[in-house]
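Marked as duplicate of an earlier ticket. Keeping the data here for the record.
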Amino acid sequence: MRSLFIAGILIAAPVVAMAVGSESDTPPTPTDTTQTCTNGMIWDADSKSCLEPTDSSLNDRDRMDAVRELAYAGRINDAERVLDAMTDQTADGVLTYRGFTARKAGRVDEAHEWYARALEANPDNLLARSYLGQAHVAEGNIQLAQAQLSEIRQRGGRSSWAELSLRMAIRSGSGYSY
């Protein structure tokens, strides 16, 4: 019954961009970046080859798409390698994903630092707030997670994926990746 309830919420709730650098509210579709390339390399459709993330033919949008795909696939080290190649290391999306990858790698204190920097750069970064709240849930600090949920709602994120995923994490006691 609970699964049906959660599925109903997911279907009925309007969602916004689920992950930084993405206009999608669904998990990334695996591409050759995760299917063919190794060591944090990124598939380039034009050359039909895997490129170093620093290659000049790639832009930060390509890199962020690769970060999202690699992180979702659990290839945290590869995602971090691509993050290192991002042009603007102070962009709140980059900082958010640094927090996400640190948290998924078990470096929770470091993750908190990255999320704080992302929120300093952009207090309205709802995804950073959601991921920070999910870190608090994982640490058993529901009160701090609820504070982030409140911030998300106050900043216009009601019914967004950021709000929904944090609310479900608080309810279930465990976080969601996306």
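See parent ticket for discussion. The chain has a mean pLDDT of 87.
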